[in-house]
Amino acid sequence: MSKQLSNIKIQLTTKGQGIVNFDSTDQKFMLNKSAGANIITHDNTKIAKATYSKDANGNIVRTVKVSSQCIRQAIYCVKHNPNIMYSQSLFNDSISSMAALVLGYMYANEKKGAAKKKSPLVVTDAQEVSGAIPTFNTHSNSGDRNDTSLYYVEEVGDTRFETTLLLDLSELKHIVLSDTYGRNSVFPDGEEALKAKLREKYGEISEGYYKMEGEDGSVPEYGAELSDEAVVAIVKDLIARIKQLRIARANGYLEFDSMKFFTFENGAWTPMDEPSDFTVKSRYALMEDQEAAKKLHDDVCAQAKQDLTSRKETKAEEKAKKAAKKAEKVSK
Questions:
Q1: Which residue among 99, 169, 239, 314 sits deepest, i.e. has the most Cβ atoms within 10 Å of its Cβ?
Q2: Residue 138 pLDDT exceeds 60
Q3: Is 152 helix (H, G, I), strand (E, B) or coil?
Q4: Whole-model pTM above 0.90?
């Protein structure tokens, strides 16, 4: 019997050597403060990203990190080009991809509005846990020796980083197809094309008017949901990509070492095997009376649109009156 899951937590450990994620040189002030001395005074310095905290004695503790954005980008290695908005086939192919469904996206068009999907994946910064001590070493560019030819780089030996990933399966499964709450996943003229692309890639989808469980009195929201089988396939793909994780720089690298899985049950995170067969416990409920839900949705949205138009007309009238008064004063 398949286990029912609403979320998956992954504790990821990586191994490597050297620094793979550098920060702004402005961070030298925090670094000096944590060291209790001005150990870095030169602007031409490459400093690792780090977190700062205080220990029991009030001393500032600095821990080298790799940013969550760097980890997310390394998992999928994708780049979104906003120009794909001008090709509906490219756009729908992109936003229906596994990478887009997991990482989320945001596209804005002056005429069409916005198309966006909240990422169901939370990734925390990866913290260095091996106790490796970084040092600053002097490097030089070729040519004459001067202030600009010398630069300083933070370096470290073997490293181990730990990070946590949280995957909300409800948000992964659910795709909003209306602008009821200002979070439409697609532009208004691309809804049917997106649904066709989703069916092409993931098989059958369910669609209709949904509401969040426990949200009585809320306006129904039109959307679609992937099948549980499709969600399982996306999760398996994500796990496979994490196992292939590797970030390489000129003087350092980071790669996958191990991971553990958990799910939230009875108020606590419970260890589990690598998820391979499960059903999704969704927070979104398909409303029983779809005709009534559609009518309620359309009536509320029509009234809201009418009120917005009225407010805009009132503001325009007030602006015109002020302009007329100003012109009258000038003429006098």
A1: 169
A2: yes
A3: strand
A4: no
